[in-house]
Amino acid sequence: MTDISLDDSGPPWYDKDENGRIDVLAIPKRLRTHPEIQRRGIVLAEPPKPGSVYSTSTLHDPQYAVKILRSETEERKIYEMLLVDIRNSHNHTLPAELTETGYPLLIMPRLWNYRTLHRGNEWSLYETLGYLLQVVEGVEYLHRLHIAHLDLCTGNILVSGPEDEPYHEGIVAYKIFIIDFDSAQRFKLGPGVQPAIQLPPSQTRPPNGLKHFDPYSWDVYCTGHVLNHIMLVSVHGL
Asked: What are the CA-CA distances from residue 225 to residues 124, 138, 154, 202 (Å)?
């Protein structure tokens, strides 16, 4: 197995197999031997997002996910700002740690998408309203800091279960967390006064093929899609 990433290069990180082909399922040697991964004794076993996000096995606790940060984005700076205020109840950032040694990594608890919590069962009205409120609260908190996520979608909304509390500090059962600030940007101007920007690639399709949007309004539009999906899941137990 050969590591094909350069020492200072960002993701994606891959290894090549003995035949010289990229092995997208393998844990890259560069990540396995990263000083912070070794110091913590984290054994990565799965690639939720091959090339950039790897996680420990679901068979052993505590479970972690590790993201290889891209230096050309604002993600690290935004996480630094959000993690300082992690105890704020309105802050729905996933408690995590930014590494200081070696290439920058984000080490965080491995949680699950909200769809897995009540799979096959209808949610109570109280549960549904609680999740809806938390998503809106989390987005509002970001906007107060002039941060637009710009890629809010169902895949970037996680929730903690009771089994996660004993293993990770700052994790409370049934709390919604917003992840993946790859596309996020911080602006000088806040909601209502920030001009439109060219939208980065997003998992939500813009209406009418629009390519420019007020970034905060775009977040609200995407949040609407997330809330609609939560409502569908709550009723049908998808």
From this structure: 20, 15, 8, 13
Global pTM value = 0.91
Which among 93, 32, 91 has a CA at the least distance from the CA of 66? 32
Closest residue by Cα to residue 109 from 122, 89, 93: 93
Burial class (CB in 10 A: 0-12, 13-18, 19+), 75: buried
Q: Rounded CA gap, 102 and 150, in Å?
A: 28
**Do 226 and 128 meet the contact criterion of CB atoms below 8 Å apart?**
no
At residue 135, what are phi and psi to the nearest 5 degrees? -60, -50
Angstrom distance (rounded) from CA 177 to CA 79: 13
The full 3-state SS of 176-189, as one line of letters, equals EEECCCCCCEECCC
DSSP 169-216: TT--TT-EEE---SS-EE-SS-TTTPPPEEPPP-SSPPGGG--EE-HH
- From 149, 142, 133, 136, select the one nearest 91 (Cα to Cα): 142
177, 92 contact by CB (below 8 A): yes
The C-alpha atoms of residue 217 and residue 219 are separated, in whole angstroms, by: 5
Give the pLDDT band (50/70/90) at residue 49: very high
Domain boundary assignment for the chain: 111-236
Task: Tell me which of 1.10.510.10, 2.60.120.200, 3.30.300.130, 3.40.50.300 is the CATH number of domain 111-236.
Answer: 1.10.510.10
For the segment 84-137, what is each residue's pLDDT rounded down to a tens digit?
Answer: 999 999 999 999 999 999 999 999 999 988 777 666 567 788 888 999 999 999
